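Input.
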Amino acid sequence: MIDMKQRLTFGSQRPQLGSLAACALAGLGFVAGCGDAPVEGGTVDLEFEGGALDGSDDAALAAAAAEAAAASGEVESDERTIDPKVEALAKAYLTMPINELLATMGLERDEETQMMDLPDETIRQLAIARLRRDAADPDDGGAPEQLPDGRLLIRYRHLSLDALDDFEFEAVMDSLMAGEIRFPEEVAALDGQRVEITGYMIPVEWKRREVTEFMLVRDLLACCFGGAPQPDEWTHVSMEEGEGSPYFPFVPVTVQGTLHIEGIDDGAGYAAGCFRLRGTSTREVR
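Output.
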């Protein structure tokens, strides 16, 4: 089987996300001019409750949250335990040479494939966030979990087309662009389902201070340094009318909504993506 990362460059030399991803990823580097019309003079400061990416104000934020919870009588219990091995590795990430850090995650800086060059400190914080998230929420490898309200809790592996070889993958994508869903049964069964899925937000459309459309990518570091995400590694989220989302930069975000399998044209007639989600709510994963 040909490696998934080679699929859109094998044989037919199909493009990957192209201008859509380039424009969206550029939005991660600057947010000036977001809104209904270009902003004249200066930038727009977006409200973000997550604190500094370097963690310098985490203690102050936690203290403020605890004080607010105590005042309201709503004290949140945190049963999470700290794994010394995980925290030791997180500490090592803070001083590890960046190229070595990327290599531990199977990534590298490559001008030909990487979508953008993030600052070193942002790379470190993304790596630490992924490390802690994986430790706190390990993947048991099971089927999608049905939540009490009927929604399905899914992961990107539930949307994966890795089981297809390269030629099967091309045929499935071609059929999708023609309006026919020929996905593996377990993936096709998710079409039209209310789901909850976690990834990283790359804004595409804004309305004032809220994000109305965004790419939800499986892994932001892999997206930035491993080339454009494959069609099954991201979802195009359109928030329902009146349900815009805050912008959550560089942190995991859980999105709720209805999932649809649908070809997303890259502008040249090929499928750059295959999942759309009509979002109803978003929340930061802490």
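The domain at 8-33+141-284 is CATH 2.40.50.870 (OB fold (Dihydrolipoamide Acetyltransferase, E2P)).
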